[in-house]
């Protein structure tokens, strides 16, 4: 099913873009929030299973995908991006959603569950939790802040695979698809990231400041169906943090991917099956 591209206006007039796959209005919609160096295109895998059964919406944050780039990179600070998400949810009449959040998208889910509790009915956290390991944060900043400006897609794919954490469940075709959702051909004929690389320092780097205590935000998920996907080789989410999350939320469903780094694509067969089962149990 082909999605429609929706354009919204942020409070400051910048254009926000979203992808929407239609579904019954009497069922809980799914909102997909990507990682900070990803885009709405990552929702294609989920939509392939859910479109027609549920409404699926994926948002491009400002500075990402088809959304506008900001003149001032400070516009990419986490609080501004999360405010945009809440505004977009209101504009798109997304209420009581099942939110699937990868990395930064999962942090946004935790924050919104505390800030706007009636908006979020169920949450899937993809390789993120209330503690982010410092060494993982540094690696993310470096990756996000680099534009390889590859002369061909094959060169972009090679650069991407060499630097990306391990993803043993992806075959060559899946890696190529992953790369085309990460890089786009520019007017100069070279392949560039689908995000403004200035976002690195503002969203997760030094300019973002030290991360707040996220455990109260995670605690806000206690009354909701909750699933966690953990790449066991993740440098951002440790096994110790996962164990502490389980102690705090014993009902949380955990899907572990051995040998996989940050962050799973959600298309890996064990994750896709678990995610479909999780969503099937929702109204």
Write the layout of secondary structure elements.
Elements: E1 4-9, E2 15-21, E3 30-33, H1 44-50, E4 56-60, H2 78-91, E5 97-102, H3 104-115, E6 120-126, H4 134-144, H5 153-163, H6 172-180, E7 183-185, E8 191-193, H7 199-204, H8 215-219, E9 226-231, H9 239-248, E10 253-257, H10 269-280
Parallel strand pairs: 3-4, 3-5, 5-6, 6-9, 9-10
Antiparallel strand pairs: 1-2, 2-4, 7-8
Helix pairs in contact: 5-6
Structural description of this entry:
The protein is built from ten helices and ten strands. The chain has one domain: Rossmann fold (3-Layer(aba) Sandwich), CATH 3.40.50.1820. Helix 5 (153-163) crosses helix 6. The chain is of the alpha/beta class and 283 residues long. An eight-stranded mixed sheet has the order 1-2-4-3-5-6-9-10, with helices on both faces. It has a two-stranded antiparallel ribbon with strand order 7-8. It is globular. The longest helix has 14 residues, at 78-91. A hairpin with a 5-residue loop joins strand 1 and strand 2. It has helices spanning 44-50, 78-91, 104-115, 134-144, 153-163, 172-180, 199-204, 215-219, 239-248, 269-280; strands spanning 4-9, 15-21, 30-33, 56-60, 97-102, 120-126, 183-185, 191-193, 226-231, 253-257. The mean pLDDT is 94.
């Amino acid at each position: 099913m082909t999605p429609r591209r929706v354009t919204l206006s942020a409070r400051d007039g910048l254009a926000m873009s979203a992808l929407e796959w239609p579904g019954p209005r009497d069922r809980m919609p799914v909102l997909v929030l990507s990682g900070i160096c990803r885009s709405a295109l990552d929702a294609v895998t989920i939509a392939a299973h859910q479109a027609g059964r549920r409404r699926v919406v994926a948002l491009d944050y400002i500075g990402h995908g088809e959304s506008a780039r900001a003149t001032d990179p400070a516009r990419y600070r986490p609080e501004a991006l999360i405010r945009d998400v809440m505004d977009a949810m209101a504009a798109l009449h997304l209420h009581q959603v099942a939110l699937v959040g990868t990395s930064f998208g999962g942090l946004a889910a935790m924050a919104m569950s505390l800030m706007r509790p009636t908006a979020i009915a169920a949450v899937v956290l993809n390789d993120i939790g209330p503690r982010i390991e410092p060494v993982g944060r540094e690696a993310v900043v470096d990756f996000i802040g680099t534009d390889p400006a590859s002369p061909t897609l094959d060169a972009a794919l090679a650069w991407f695979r060499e630097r990306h954490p391990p993803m043993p469940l992806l075959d060559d075709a899946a890696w190529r698809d992953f790369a085309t959702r990460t890089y786009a051909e520019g007017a100069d004929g070279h392949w560039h990231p689908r995000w403004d690389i200035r976002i690195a320092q503002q969203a997760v780097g030094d300019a973002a400041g030290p991360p707040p205590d996220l455990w109260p935000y995670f605690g806000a998920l206690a009354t909701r169906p909750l699933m966690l996907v953990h790449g066991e080789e993740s440098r951002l989410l440790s096994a110790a943090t996962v164990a502490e999350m389980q102690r705090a939320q014993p009902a949380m469903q955990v899907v572990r991917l051995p040998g996989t780094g940050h962050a799973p694509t959600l298309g890996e067969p064990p994750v896709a099956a678990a995610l479909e089962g999780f969503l099937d149990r929702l109204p």
